[in-house]
Amino acid sequence: MTTPLLETDNVTYTYPNGPAALTGVSVRITPGSKTAIVGPNGAGKSTFLLMLNGMLRPASGEVRFSGRPLAYDNRSLRDLRRRVGFVFQNPDVQIIAPTVEADVAFGPVNLGLSPDAVRRAVRDALGYVGLRGYEKRPPHHLSGGEKKRVAIAGILAMEPAVFVFDEPTNTLDPASSEEVMELLDELAAGGRTVLISTHDVELAYRWADTIILMEHGRVLACGPPEEVFSDHTLLAAARLKPPALLDLYNELGLRGVIDRGVPPKSVLEFTDRIERETRGRAPARDKTGKIYLCNADRIGGDELKAFIERSTAEHVGAMGTRAKEFANRERILLEYTYGVIDKCILKALIGEDSLIITTGGMIEHVHRRIGEYSAESGQALAVIAVQESESQRPVRVPSRG
Ligand code: ADP
Q1: Considering 117, 167, 290, 353, which has the largest number of Cβ atoms within 10 A of its Cβ?
Q2: Which residues form the ABC transporter domain (predicted)?
């Protein structure tokens, strides 16, 4: 069995003059996992997360990092907090310096890095969260989503092994929430261990690979989202509702409309399943839409806008903070900013063309994901790279087959 990166053993905690916030909490967080601590307000989620980097100390029980019990002297705590990065729900609690740059530099400076290494860490972290150019801005003038990204950059600059986010999307509008969740996806795709707390079951179902369900300071269940969220009794005990997609799937299964197997995680998976199972097979489509793919680092805004004008792409989406910044700067209207690949596949399946704008390693990811979908579904989909030079020429579409 993999050694857990973080582990709690029978942890209890009571706030001074307060209620018992945690009673006998034992969980294991494996390296590289995406875990969501889910529960209603007051369940003990934040208290539990604060145990993980030593901000709170259990009254009884033990917290272990990499198999070793936490020590609570200053030096051990400093070392631990470098490895277990904590992003508070309210970024105003976390952001302390007068400029974005100084704030992100705070951690690396405290770690004793050289000025050059600090500059590199700040530049890389701001680039990662899509905030290059914000260096001299005072954080308190930024939007909620931007502040959140500054707070994330500050943690990222210390290169922790684990990222802990207390309610990462609370108080953010839908678009900013999507951006933050996409950032968490990128962190996890890069092999980091990510933990969030949330009461949003839809978000947790879609995002997490492990759910820890909490209520009244206890763990009610721990397991894969489709298992934990299919248990209505447990959810009722936690005063939560099942995710809509899973609820619908389970009801259709109970009525015998579709066979119950592994529940779908996305609209694309769900619609494919219904189509296959109600029609006996996936229908052979004689015309599918094309998915254009462009690297925002390799194309000018004017070229891309000219391409969009001329091409048949009816839908445009961007993946990753850099690509979204590029689109905003160039005033390219984005229809999709989250779940972009799936949405473009859904459009291709009904014969409509779309364009995905992204950068770096995500280009390969798009090819891979669409290739996997084509192989699994038997429905070959064309991904066409838009290159700077090519975008000057009339669009020629290779025929499939
Ligand atoms: P959640 O994050 O799930 O909303 P919390 O961990 O914040 O839950 O709270 C768990 C319990 O501890 C609640 O009953 C809450 O009122 C209490 N609590 C949280 N923080 C404090 C505090 N600083 N002082 C006293 N009681 C607190």
Answers
A1: 290
A2: 6-241
| pTM (two decimals) | 0.86
> How do beta strands 291-295 and 354-358 pair?
parallel
Taking 60 as the threshold, does the pLDDT of residue 398 lie above it?
A: no
Our measurement of the distance from residue 275's CA atom to the centroid of its chain's CA atoms, rounded to an integer in Å, reads 28
User: Comparing 287 with 77, which gets the higher pLDDT?
Assistant: 77
How large a percentage of the chain has pLDDT more than 90? 71
For CA atoms 243, 174, 130, 45, the dihedral sign is: negative
Q: d(Cα 243, Cα 228) in Å, to the nearest integer? A: 11
| Side chain identity, residue 183 | L
CA distance 365 to 266: 18
- Report H helices in 74-223: 74-83, 91-94, 100-110, 115-128, 144-156, 174-189, 201-207
pLDDT tens across 22-62, in order? Answer: 999 999 999 999 999 999 999 999 999 999 999 999 999 99
Ligand 1 centroid–CA 42 distance in Å is 5
If we measure between CA atoms, which residue out of 244, 252, 247, 243 comes closest to residue 273?
252
CA 38 to chain centre: 15
Strand segments, DSSP code E, in 161-280 are 162-166, 193-198, 210-215, 218-223
CA distance 335 to 237: 38
Show the tokens assigned to 353. 């063309």
From the CB of 46, is ligand 1 less than 6 Å away? yes
Mean pLDDT of the chain: 91
Given a contact cutoff of 8 angstroms between Cβ atoms, the answer to whether 193 and 165 are in contact is: no
Reported confidence tier of residue 361, pLDDT bands at 50, 70, 90: confident
The contacts of residue 254 (CB under 8 Å, 6+ apart) are none
C-beta of 43 in contact with ligand 1 (< 6 A): yes
Q: Is the CB of 273 under 6 A from ligand 1?
A: no
Residues 6+ apart with CB under 8 A from 354: 289, 290, 291, 292, 313, 314, 315, 316, 317, 336, 343, 344, 347, 348
Contact 275, 256 (CB under 8 A): no
Nearest-angstrom CA–CA distance, 213 and 207: 15
For the chain, give the longest Cα–Cα distance. Answer: 72
pLDDT of residue 166: 96
Distance from Cα 297 to the centre of ligand 1, integer Å? 45
